[in-house]
Specification:
The structure is a single chain. The protein is an all-alpha fold. The protein has one domain. Helices cover 72% and strands 0% of the residues. Helix 2 runs antiparallel to helix 3. The longest helix has 33 residues. It is elongated.
């Protein structure tokens, strides 16, 4: 990656767009966090669905670039699965 290029985490981007996603122990702020998590849910489900579509297309395509996108999407989903079950 070239020097000076910014790297964003999905958490930092999501928090910039939606707001805080972590409970802090204050009822008022935690209600806001709970509301934010509803939006995170929609965003995350959409991302996972898109990755799944990529995997399906890649497995059923003869186009090398479509297959590569499918393989990368499968890798991301596998990594996500490992995070969930570790």
């Amino acid at each position: 990656m070239p020097d000076g290029e910014r790297v964003y985490s999905i958490t930092s981007v999501t928090e910039a767009l939606i707001g805080n996603m972590s409970a802090v122990g204050d009822s008022q702020r935690d209600r806001e966090v709970l509301s934010n998590l509803e939006e995170v849910n929609v965003l995350l489900i959409d991302l996972v669905k898109t990755l799944g579509i990529n995997v399906n297309r890649g497995e059923h395509s003869y186009e090398g670039s479509v297959q590569a996108v499918g393989v990368k999407s499968r890798s991301i989903l596998d990594e996500l699965r490992c995070c969930l079950y570790s």
